TrEMBL record:
Pfam families given in the database record: DUF3775 (PF12616)
Protein name according to UniProt: DUF3775 domain-containing protein
InterPro entries: DUF3775
Lineage summary: Bacteria, Pseudomonadati, Pseudomonadota, Alphaproteobacteria, Maricaulales
Amino acid sequence: MNIAEKMVRSLIDRARAYDSKEQIDDFERDADSGETDAVESLLTGDRDPIRTEIEDWLGSLDEEAQAELVALYWIGRGDYDGPDFRRAVREARSRRSGPTEDYLLGAPMLGDYLELGLDSVIEADVFDDA
């Protein structure tokens, strides 16, 4: 693989933090309330720092590593089995039509499916750590 297990696990943690937030684009601060900072930390949108961090990290990866992450997501989602990892990577490369970060950050349960996919690939003994 072009991406290390440790890096995938780190992405899983960040994706779960991002997935736990609620998408709200029109939130306005209440100047009279001290609770707005707590509320804002649970919201996400275009300016979310976790989203930006994930986008930057994914964008810095080469196309092969990005395809591997998409394949792990698909395996975790149940589209492929762990032993089919290489086939899923080839399919991810051929079906790519836009930025990987947009696809993955728009995918439901990203962190959970990545973890299931990674565990399945490791269990199938087809994961060779970068």
